Amino acid sequence: MELSNITGLKGKITVPGDKSISHRAVMFGALAKGTTEIHHFLNGADCLSTIDCFRNMGIEIKEKETSVYVHGKGLHGLSKPSCTLNVGNSGTTTRLISGILAGQSFETTLSGDDSLNSRPMKRIITPLTQMGANISSVAGNNCAPLFIAPGELHGIHYDSPVASAQVKSSILLAGLYADGETSVTEPALSRNHTELMLKEFGAPIRSTFEIGGTKATASVRSCEELYAQQITVPGDISSAAYFIAAGLLVPDSEILIQNVGINSTRAGILKICEEMGGDISLLHEHTSAGEPVADILVRTSKLHGTTIEGAIIPTLIDEIPIIAVMAAAAEGTTFIRDAAELKVKETNRIETVTDNLKAMGCEVLPTNDGMVIKGGSKLKGATIHTLLDHRIAMAFSIAALIAEGNTKILDSHCVDVSYPSFYDTFEQLL
Ligand code: S3P
């Protein structure tokens, strides 16, 4: 994909359904009795991997445009797959499904692409093993492929060293098959879609927040049944983020992004845009499937640098690539700290973000847990090495719109992982 600078992005758009919520709706629907209807589902490659895994375990799932019908067979209705489950590029599929598989009475192996098979799985192997699961890394390197055999699960309390919704959710899902209570405390609250949605499906799940601190605990007990739901998935704020940035950065722009999920455990980018001086407002706030939703209106703004650190990090972890692009265009310096988790995403995003920003002429320093970005100088067109990371492709496509000269995004098709129609949405604004 080749892109160059433009002005005047104008219009009203919607973005595809939230990736995290789409995954969970299929998983919990498969474990519930009856048909779960999911509307505005994200047809991205990651969520299709989740569908594929459950089809391989005997769950009938019908797709019609962006609606998905999951014919769940109850908590104990999955059957042994005849092949290795293919989790593709999806960390969410891998880690959440592992919690579910730990509670089954059959053996499974799951494996993904090269990027997925190099991401750390010890973070789930450790707590699931403590619960009594039989889960191991086939190559003995604490990465996928993972082999999971039946085990007797019992509830534990787990103090997670990382604020990760994937780790938390994996443990809570195993907790549905464990005796007693299973609880997870995280150092800062990560996205809470599992807690909100499992409650809607009828699971006995509770969340508490440490008064005056940042630690958060979620706990669950096993139950007889989950009950099928009708879910309309809100627009993905992580996808909206690229158009929020485009609206703020491209001169003479005004963009309305309709029906975006603004759950506070995901909406850190909105706070940061405001702190950077962005003209951004929320309209028509309402709730859908237990999740807060709004339209987001953005207008071109003069941005300034900021410091991003601490408990806000898990609420914007996937948006750091595009926030870094905004920081490069902003006046002054932006410091991003406490974000070492960036190193274990689809790529090492401290490296992929800073390498590509440097290629565009930005003065940026990678650090052990983030980066320091000196903003304000004009970006120059460059060749962007996405390393097949969807968020790098999209973030630098927006950078291209304000850079001098042409920018070439290598392997831009990787946007299919979370936003197959990304470049079509963009065209609606021209
Ligand atoms: C996700 C959680 C986050 C996020 C990922 C989706 C989820 O990962 O980066 O894209 O759906 O639970 P961690 O929980 O590992 O931070």
TrEMBL record:
<dbReference type="InterPro" id="IPR001986">
    <property type="entry name" value="Enolpyruvate_Tfrase_dom"/>
</dbReference>
<feature type="binding site">
    <location>
        <position position="91"/>
    </location>
    <ligand>
        <name>phosphoenolpyruvate</name>
    </ligand>
</feature>
<comment type="function">
    <text>Catalyzes the transfer of the enolpyruvyl moiety of phosphoenolpyruvate (PEP) to the 5-hydroxyl of shikimate-3-phosphate (S3P) to produce enolpyruvyl shikimate-3-phosphate and inorganic phosphate.</text>
</comment>
<keyword id="KW-0057">Aromatic amino acid biosynthesis</keyword>
<feature type="binding site">
    <location>
        <position position="349"/>
    </location>
    <ligand>
        <name>phosphoenolpyruvate</name>
    </ligand>
</feature>
<keyword id="KW-0808">Transferase</keyword>
<dbReference type="InterPro" id="IPR036968">
    <property type="entry name" value="Enolpyruvate_Tfrase_sf"/>
</dbReference>
<feature type="binding site">
    <location>
        <position position="19"/>
    </location>
    <ligand>
        <name>3-phosphoshikimate</name>
    </ligand>
</feature>
<comment type="subunit">
    <text>Monomer.</text>
</comment>
<feature type="binding site">
    <location>
        <position position="345"/>
    </location>
    <ligand>
        <name>3-phosphoshikimate</name>
    </ligand>
</feature>
<feature type="binding site">
    <location>
        <position position="166"/>
    </location>
    <ligand>
        <name>phosphoenolpyruvate</name>
    </ligand>
</feature>
<feature type="active site" description="Proton acceptor">
    <location>
        <position position="318"/>
    </location>
</feature>
<feature type="binding site">
    <location>
        <position position="19"/>
    </location>
    <ligand>
        <name>phosphoenolpyruvate</name>
    </ligand>
</feature>
<keyword id="KW-0028">Amino-acid biosynthesis</keyword>
<dbReference type="InterPro" id="IPR013792">
    <property type="entry name" value="RNA3'P_cycl/enolpyr_Trfase_a/b"/>
</dbReference>
<dbReference type="GO" id="GO:0009073">
    <property type="term" value="P:aromatic amino acid family biosynthetic process"/>
</dbReference>
<feature type="binding site">
    <location>
        <position position="318"/>
    </location>
    <ligand>
        <name>3-phosphoshikimate</name>
    </ligand>
</feature>
<dbReference type="InterPro" id="IPR006264">
    <property type="entry name" value="EPSP_synthase"/>
</dbReference>
<feature type="binding site">
    <location>
        <position position="391"/>
    </location>
    <ligand>
        <name>phosphoenolpyruvate</name>
    </ligand>
</feature>
<dbReference type="GO" id="GO:0003866">
    <property type="term" value="F:3-phosphoshikimate 1-carboxyvinyltransferase activity"/>
</dbReference>
<protein>
    <recommendedName>
        <fullName>3-phosphoshikimate 1-carboxyvinyltransferase</fullName>
        <ecNumber>2.5.1.19</ecNumber>
    </recommendedName>
</protein>
<feature type="binding site">
    <location>
        <position position="164"/>
    </location>
    <ligand>
        <name>3-phosphoshikimate</name>
    </ligand>
</feature>
<dbReference type="Pfam" id="PF00275">
    <property type="entry name" value="EPSP_synthase"/>
</dbReference>
<dbReference type="GO" id="GO:0005737">
    <property type="term" value="C:cytoplasm"/>
</dbReference>
<feature type="domain" description="Enolpyruvate transferase">
    <location>
        <begin position="6"/>
        <end position="425"/>
    </location>
</feature>
<dbReference type="GO" id="GO:0009423">
    <property type="term" value="P:chorismate biosynthetic process"/>
</dbReference>
<dbReference type="InterPro" id="IPR023193">
    <property type="entry name" value="EPSP_synthase_CS"/>
</dbReference>
<keyword id="KW-0963">Cytoplasm</keyword>
<comment type="pathway">
    <text>Metabolic intermediate biosynthesis; chorismate biosynthesis; chorismate from D-erythrose 4-phosphate and phosphoenolpyruvate: step 6/7.</text>
</comment>
<comment type="similarity">
    <text>Belongs to the EPSP synthase family.</text>
</comment>
<feature type="binding site">
    <location>
        <position position="166"/>
    </location>
    <ligand>
        <name>3-phosphoshikimate</name>
    </ligand>
</feature>
<feature type="binding site">
    <location>
        <position position="119"/>
    </location>
    <ligand>
        <name>phosphoenolpyruvate</name>
    </ligand>
</feature>
<dbReference type="GO" id="GO:0008652">
    <property type="term" value="P:amino acid biosynthetic process"/>
</dbReference>
<feature type="binding site">
    <location>
        <position position="20"/>
    </location>
    <ligand>
        <name>3-phosphoshikimate</name>
    </ligand>
</feature>
<feature type="binding site">
    <location>
        <position position="24"/>
    </location>
    <ligand>
        <name>3-phosphoshikimate</name>
    </ligand>
</feature>
